[in-house]
């Protein structure tokens, strides 16, 4: 959450303003600057948009900058835009774009959990940006247990429906989250279902053993969903 101070009216903006108005986003490689402007103009007045291109081929790298007039507008864009854009506050202009791109990929694509944020790899097809599970598939080519689209989640602490839904919704394809309560114990139990087995596999891989809340480890296992697990 960004908190921007109110500024006196006028054309002057100090250095702090300059560094809080530019965001860095991941976009489909087919996007033009006009497409980028169209997607982000709902969050505020845009000063300029730019797309990072390969210096040799001139093709888009699938990354871009959006500069707003006010820090509050940039903050709103980061908070409210679709997660597929992976919007973050851009580094100051005195840092080279190549260095920032490297840091961006290193920090946002790293294959471990950062707080309650799950990293994904994205590819672009006719439907736009889609999650890619390639890194997981390469590391876990052989799965020793029957898989399904449905998961069982167990915790020694009770679950709050909205919070658990938000956690598992970080993996694309969540269909439902059903929290159940045992009147005789204080433990938590829930059934999670995804639209594809790939999403369920990824959710189990990332969230089994995840501490939520901190100090309370989740146990995530597959539940039989009646489908052929060999698929």
Automatic annotation (TrEMBL):
Keywords, A to Z? Repeat, RNA-binding
Please report the stretch or stretches of sequence annotated as the RRM domain: 21-95
Q: Record's CDD domains?
A: RRM2_RBM45 (cd12367), RRM3_RBM45 (cd12368)
- A GO molecular-function annotation: RNA binding
Pfam families assigned:
RRM_1 (PF00076)
Protein name, per record: RBM45 protein
Source organism: Vidua chalybeata
């Amino acid at each position: 959450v960004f908190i921007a101070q109110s500024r006196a009216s006028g054309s002057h903006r100090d250095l702090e303003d300059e560094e809080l108005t530019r965001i860095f986003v991941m976009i489909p490689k087919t996007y033009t600057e006009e497409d980028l402007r169209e997607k982000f103009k709902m969050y505020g007045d845009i000063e300029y948009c730019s797309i990072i291109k390969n210096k040799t081929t001139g093709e888009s790298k699938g990354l871009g900058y959006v500069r707003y007039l006010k820090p509050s507008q940039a903050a709103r864009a980061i908070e409210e835009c679709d997660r597929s854009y992976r919007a973050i506050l851009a580094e100051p202009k005195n840092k080279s774009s190549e260095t920032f791109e490297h840091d961006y990929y290193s920090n946002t694509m790293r294959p471990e959990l950062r707080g309650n944020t799950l990293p994904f790899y994205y590819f672009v097809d006719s439907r736009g940006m889609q999650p890619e599970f390639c890194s997981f598939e390469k590391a876990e080519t052989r799965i020793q247990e029957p898989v399904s689209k449905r998961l069982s989640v167990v915790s020694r602490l009770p679950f709050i429906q909205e919070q658990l839904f938000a956690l598992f919704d970080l993996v694309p394809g969540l269909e439902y989250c059903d929290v159940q309560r045992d009147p005789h114990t204080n433990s938590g139990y829930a059934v999670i279902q995804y639209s594809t087995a790939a999403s369920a596999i990824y959710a189990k891989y990332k969230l089994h053993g995840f501490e939520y809340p901190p100090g309370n480890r989740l146990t995530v296992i597959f539940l039989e969903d009646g489908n052929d697990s060999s698929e």
